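Per reviewer request, we include the raw input and output of the structure prediction for the construct analysed in the revised manuscript.
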Amino acid sequence: MASEFDIIRKYFTREAPTAVLGVGDDCALLRPDPGMLLAVSTDMLTAGIHFFPGAEPGKLGHKALAVNLSDLAAMGAGPRWATLALALPEADEKWIAAFAQGFFRLADRWKTELIGGDTTRGPLAISVTVMGEVPAELALKRDAACAGDDIWLSGATGEAALALAHLKGRVKLEDAALEACLTRLHTPEPRVDLGVRLRGLARSAIDVSDGLSSTSSANTSLGKRRRRSWEWATTARSSGPTPECCSPFRPTC
């Protein structure tokens, strides 16, 4: 059976040319670009809570990184580095190889370097921390939203929830609709480009992938100003140009 260090060396050790020091030491060492703030976000996914225990490992690797990159996008930050911690019930190398392939395929698309992490034995759980950069004066902070701002939504909401409802037998989806919804559930696409393009245009942004209602109740900035339910929302200065790839949110309740 492969040891922890064998797994790390074989599947998760890669060059990280923009880090001062990457995988292999007690800590990674990083040097953000001049004039940039370091944006950091962590998400944990656990089997039976955030994904089905039999989920395809390649898609799970993609999703574990994607949900974190989405948080960077909501801050207007461009991704740079990531760490990965895995709890595995067994050292199934076929599973690990497929997971790593899905993770690194997305990481390579967004030039995100894996600089460290950990593995241990236990119930399947995945924790990813991402680090990105954003100019200090252009970060899309939640508390920058102002009363009277327009609220815009990128993409559509509810498709991942529909896929989950289908898998649990609560609704029945057919053909193209099912495929589209399953894609949104298993391999969501972080809107990194949009987040960067909204710098200086949007005043504030929030990742609402946990759902509109839960986001609006948990958010203490946008929520207090709108008290309405509203994937990825941004408040725009009413005098600014219309953001591309977004549509205005019009509450109905």
